[in-house]
Amino acid sequence: MASDATSERILDAALEQFARFGLRRSTIDDVARAGGVSRITIYRHFPQRERLVEAVIVRELERFLAQLDGAVIGLDDVEERLVEGFVVTLHAARCHPLLGRLLSIEPELVLPLLTIHGGRPLAIASDYLAQRIHVLRDAGDVPEREAQQVAELVVRLTLSFILTPDGAIALDDESAMRAFARRYVAPLATRAEPVEITPVS
Length: 201
What we know:
This protein is an all-alpha fold. The protein has helices spanning about 1-20, 30-35, 40-45, 50-70, 80-95, 95-105, 105-115, 120-135, 145-165, 175-185, 185-190. The longest helix is centred in the N-terminal third of the chain and has 24 residues, at about 50-70. It is globular and about 55 Å long.
């Protein structure tokens, strides 16, 4: 339990440090001072600086997904939850103190963490969405494999809007985002037809 509490303390300090000064200007020494711990303690929990950065990103993602559940839990079906989830996600990403700042001041550092080196955050978000599609879509008539593929497609699409906000879709207009999500995003799950996949022998 003490180890978990120490990890959380380090992650809290790292989040504040990264959000205020960015990744390039933040050192392990800075995080250690902010968290009131030693460099050795940080390296004991996060052996590499890259592991610390990833852990901060993953924890923020997991926190957001818990909030997202709360935002859509009262909606009736998978379509409405996908539409609202799309809008809530884009709004949260634009307003997040760490992600918004890093995309603004250090895009060359944060983009690889969410793209070519973003396998873990992508997997977490895709697993989260796939489970809900599988459960909500007509009492689970979408096979888990297909739900996973659809979820990953939705996550990748949403991430592209977060990383490249300029375009034909007005991301500061919630009604426009809802219309877009209802027409193009939700059907990826709601109109997906279950398919029987025959294993290759």
